[in-house]
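Table S2 (continued). Query chain:
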Amino acid sequence: MNRLLLSVVALVALAASCHGNPGLDFPFGRIVNGEDVDIENYPYQVSVQTTKGSHFCGGSLIDSETVLTAAHCMQSYAASELQVRVGSTSRSSGGEVVTVRAFKYHEGYNSKLMINDVAIIKLSSPVRQTSKIRAIELADSEAVSGTNAVVSGWGTTCFLFCSSPDTLQKVEVDLLHYKDCAADTYNYGSDSILETMVCATGEKKDACQGDSGGPLVADNKLVGVVSWGSGCAWTGYPGVYADVASLRSWIVDTTDSL
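Corresponding output:
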């Protein structure tokens, strides 16, 4: 399932399907088990919102007028219905709000397999880069398992029945190459974890609903885009991200052409 807010019916169904599995537990922490942070430390982070100001996904500023987010975030909207808040620790106030001129999601995105889960948003006008608004460089090499990374966002603080914080959150996690994520150590298997994906894991730490589209960063480069996962911070189920390095050509080409 993706990391947009899910319906109660879907949540209950998933909880029922996991009943009795000792490997699954429901952590009730932050982002999950994150901490409040200031946007100056994560100036590439943006909030993707409806024009009514409702946050529904995260994103990453990759140049002065371009945001990278998840394809699954963009399925129900027209560009005229969207805005992006940049340069603010709060998802509901501060910074700058910029309307959206256009967006495009990957032609090969598949909602069942969750492959190619990336989209480009073009802002209606460029933003001036400051200490609170700054583009991030795209990763250009495959992830190395064990590398420390950070994921940030305004998503829910646990999987079931939690509110979303107004203050930006972050957690530190460790990268997992997709082949390691698909190995028997974890519970997804090779049919679910594909080469356009990268995983990240931490002890009771993860992204969650509402963090979709947001940044996974290692060594000051954008490595992943929050995509999907079974629950949030469940034992044996790392967070799964669109792999920026493997999708870099599409991202660059679409950024230039859109």
